[in-house]
Design brief:
3 domains; mainly alpha; 8 helices
Length: 153
């Protein structure tokens, strides 16, 4: 691997200590502690919002934890919104599991379970791009209140 790095970087290979950096990254890779790409994305977003999350390395350190806690749950409205989403998604998961279980108990056929999964997942795949385009252009408060308001009536 050193040969590839030397050929790619030329004379700056030794100046920038790429041999040391390459050895460090290899040791990190070999130890199994790969960075979490979702956490790196969260760290970049926290930095963009002005919260010091520490190094952007994909590892949840104490500064990243503190930044997440300060950013999200400091606001009462967000905490209420998050708890509501958690309860709503938990209910949806329980309903989906019970529905699949009932379907299998009534039919005893794995084919119908697959068909149910297709019927549940296909609209999500088909309409996600359209929904994303609509959400990008509309007011966020209206978008967040519309799906939950249908349960009030």
């Amino acid at each position: 691997m050193d040969g590839l790095a030397k050929g790619y970087n030329g004379s700056s290979y030794w100046q920038n200590r790429y041999d040391v950096k390459l050895a460090e990254q290899y040791q990190r890779f070999a130890s199994g502690s790969l960075p979490n790409l979702e956490m790196r994305t969260a760290q970049v977003a926290l930095l963009f919002l002005g919260y010091a999350s520490g190094k952007i390395d994909g590892v949840i350190g104490p500064r990243t934890r503190a930044a997440i806690k300060n950013c999200a749950f400091r606001h009462r409205d967000y905490l209420i919104f998050w708890c509501g989403l958690l309860l709503g998604h938990t209910g949806t998961l329980i309903q989906t599991t019970a529905q699949s279980w009932l379907l299998f108990q009534l039919t005893n056929a794995p084919f119908y379970l697959g068909l149910e999964g297709l019927c549940l997942g296909l609209p999500r795949v088909l309409f996600s791009a359209l929904g994303g385009a609509i959400v990008d252009r509309a007011d966020r408060k209206i978008i967040l209140s519309l799906p939950k308001s249908r349960f009030c009536s």
